[in-house]
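ingest -> validate -> predict -> emit
validate: passed (alphabet ok, no gaps, 181 aa)
predict: started
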Amino acid sequence: MITLKNAISPEDSFEIEKAISYLVVNYNKSGHNPKPVILHSLRVAELLMEMGYDKKIVIGAVLHDILEDTEVSPEQLKSEFGEGILLLVVSVSYDNTITDPIQSYKDMFDRVIAYGKEAIVLKAVDIAVNSLYINLVPQRQKRKELVEKGTYFLNLTKRYSSDPAWKLLQARNKECIKKFL
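emit:
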């Protein structure tokens, strides 16, 4: 039977919808990622809602790629959604000044862990949803690196192994290891 036990309240729904509109408008204006960023962000947010996480994490999920993939500045994001959302989004975003891909994701993972559980949960579901696109990567070595990145994150965050988001990433990572390694 389908229940609505984890449903977001009507009041929170308006704030989440505002974030969705903001993402769509800004991505259509200045988006530059070939992956389906809007759908990806909505998938991450939907999974987090289904798992019963609060509106802050869901809004963070909707907006988690906006600083990387549009011309929205941190100041604009803060003005629109507040410092709490900005800090969450920054913690799960890559630092575009770091050019080495491995150092870049390690730096971001350090910020995720420093931020805490909300960022860890968001990043776990983000990586899990990103794993759906691994088969589109033509280079075998790059696919291997993406799977290893998920494994690295899981190892860093083992203390959250009872969390539903962590378990989702663990399951997706096991599937990817079987399929791509």
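The chain has one domain: 10-180.
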